[in-house]
């Protein structure tokens, strides 16, 4: 009886761990997932910093924007799991749409980098908002539901 009482919490913990690991996105442990994670971290850090921009930190901001752009460029040639799972006949158009969207995202990150380098905070804010909208739209279209 005591042994089964001790095993029950362990079984519950193991069950919870398996649920959380299976709920992870199909792209999470792939080169695409790693690039997207790097974009998210840089974007979040930059968003926090730009709430009250400090011209003395301009170079750090440019570096974060470069990370966003460089990682977005890597993503252009990668295929999201959702597209891979689609019927063969649908893939070419969806893949073309994905690449178009990722190119736009990378271009906007480049605009952000330039704005930050020139300390044009309102232009940088507009680029950040555009990146956020593009991310939401792209994830809705191309990210596998969790």
Keywords:
146 residues
CATH architecture descriptor:
Up-down Bundle
Q: What is Rg? A: 20 Å
> What is the terminal separation in angstroms?
39 Å
Mean pLDDT: 85
Structural class: mainly alpha
How many runs of DSSP E, i.e. beta strands?
0
Shape type: elongated
Tally of contiguous helical segments: 6
Largest sheet geometry: none
- What would you give as the CATH superfamily? Cytochrome c/b562
How many discrete domains? Answer: 1
Order of helices and strands: HHHHHH
Strand content: under 5%
What is the CATH fold-level name? Four Helix Bundle (Hemerythrin (Met), subunit A)
- Contiguous low-pLDDT stretches (5 residues minimum) are 7-25
Task: Provide a brief overview of the structure.
The protein is an all-alpha fold. The protein has helices at about 1-20, 30-50, 60-75, 80-85, 90-115, 120-140.
How would you explain this protein's 3D organization?
There is one protein chain. With about 150 residues, the protein is mainly alpha-helical. The protein has a single domain, classed as Cytochrome c/b562 (Four Helix Bundle (Hemerythrin (Met), subunit A), Up-down Bundle). Helix content is about 75%, strand content about 0%. The longest helix has 27 residues, at about 90-115. The protein is elongated.
């Amino acid at each position: 009886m005591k042994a089964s009482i001790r095993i029950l919490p362990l079984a519950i913990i193991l069950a919870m761990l398996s649920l959380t690991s299976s709920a992870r996105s199909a792209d999470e442990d792939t080169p695409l997932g790693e690039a997207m994670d790097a974009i998210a971290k840089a974007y979040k850090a930059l968003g926090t910093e730009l709430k009250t921009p400090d011209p003395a930190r301009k170079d750090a901001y440019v570096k974060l924007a470069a990370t966003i752009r460089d990682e977005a460029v890597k993503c252009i040639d990668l295929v999201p799991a959702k597209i891979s799972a689609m019927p063969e006949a649908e893939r070419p158009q969806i893949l073309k749409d994905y690449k178009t969207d990722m190119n736009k995202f990378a271009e906007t990150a480049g605009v952000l980098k330039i704005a930050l380098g020139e300390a044009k905070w309102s232009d940088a804010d507009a680029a950040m908002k555009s990146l956020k909208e593009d991310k939401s739209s792209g994830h809705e279209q191309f990210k596998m539901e969790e």
